Amino acid sequence: MSSAKDVLRPLVISGPSGVGKSTLLQRLFAQYPDKFGFSVSHTTRPPRPGETEGKQYYFVSRDKFQELLKQGAFIEHAEFSGNFYATSFNAVREVSQAGRRCILDIEAQGVRQIKQTNLDPVYLFISPPTLAALRARLQTRGTETEASTSKRLATALKEIEYAKEGAHNVVIVNDDLERACDLLKRVALGEEIASDTLPPLDD
Ligand SMILES: Nc1ncnc2c1ncn2[C@@H]1O[C@H](COP(=O)(O)OP(=O)(O)OP(=O)(O)O)[C@@H](O)[C@H]1O
């Protein structure tokens, strides 16, 4: 059995939209329902019907958000379509206090911000095998219009550029889903695996 020395560090997962992060994480959580947890983020967007304070999000006013930001409560924060979102140090701590490894699904800007903190997570990048495969997945998922596919692809290129700088500890290429699931499982359980080589992604 290889060492599991990383199992206490948070695991930050990033990768372009459509690469399969949600699919992989759903499978991991299904296989290990008690081992991992997501931190609850803060947001300034109003709750949707059925959403509960402290479950999907901590819902805060813009003023409260700014106050917490000033206090240094957040590991990373971002604005999406007019609303602010953030991950707090406390939210990550709550997951580990519940005896679970905290998994954070974070985009490149957030990863950059986390690197400025003392969180010391493992950074995992999920890569598509090719850009053509990524494009096809976004299209077949059926959740995107042509315009939003282009927008997601443009953002995807930024994620990939960042990965090319060597920003992550481990790369998993999501080519064969079973293989990628197995590698994610091993990383999540704290094993040090041989990283996949980042594909050229210039097609
Ligand atoms: N290894 C794979 N081979 C082929 N298709 C895959 C593979 N992994 C995931 N997919 C498919 O690709 C599509 C995108 O996957 P998913 O929604 O999990 O991506 P995501 O990275 O979570 O995207 P977002 O960041 O936009 O939420 C889905 O239709 C999924 O079924």
TrEMBL record:
Domain (Guanylate kinase-like): residue spans on this chain: 8-189
Pfam family for this entry, one: Guanylate_kin
Keywords, alphabetical: ATP-binding, Kinase, Nucleotide-binding, Transferase
This protein's record includes keyword Transferase: yes
EC number: 2.7.4.8
Gene Ontology annotations for the cellular component aspect, listed alphabetically: cytosol
Enzyme's top EC category: transferase
Keyword Amino-acid biosynthesis in annotation: no
One MF annotation (Gene Ontology) recorded for this entry: ATP binding
Domain of life where this protein originates: Eukaryota
Family according to the record: Belongs to the guanylate kinase family.
Protein name, as recorded: Guanylate kinase
